[in-house]
Structure prediction request, 105 residues.
Amino acid sequence: NLLQQGANYGWPVVTLGKDYSGARISPFSTYPGMTGPIVDWTPSIAPSSMIYYSHGRFPMLANTLIVTSLKAKALYAVRAVSNEYISTKIFEGPGERLRDIALDH
Prediction:
C-alpha cells in the first residue's frame, strides 16, 4: 500500500489473500470507503526487504523499488507506469530465500 493519512486499508474486512489453509479470510476484495493495494502479490511472495534504486549504473532499474522475497525466492522490481505500479520478476534466486538487499555506492 501507498500509505496516506486517514486512509482505511480494510484489514480484515477486505483482503485479496487467502488463509494458509486456502480458506477465504473475507468475502470482500473491495468495499466502499476502503483503499485497495497498489501492488498485489497473491499468493504471497513473502516480501522481506526492499530498496529504492535511483542510480545510473543499471539504467533499466532507475527509479525502481527492488523487493526480495522469501517464499518466491526471487527478486522483483516495482515501477510506476502510466499512473499504475507494475511488479516484474527480475530473476529467480539461487534456490534459496532472498532475505536482504543492499546497495553498494
The two ends are 28 Å apart (CA to CA). The chain has a mean pLDDT of 91. The first strand starts at residue 47 and ends at 53. The chain is about 0% helix and 30% strand.
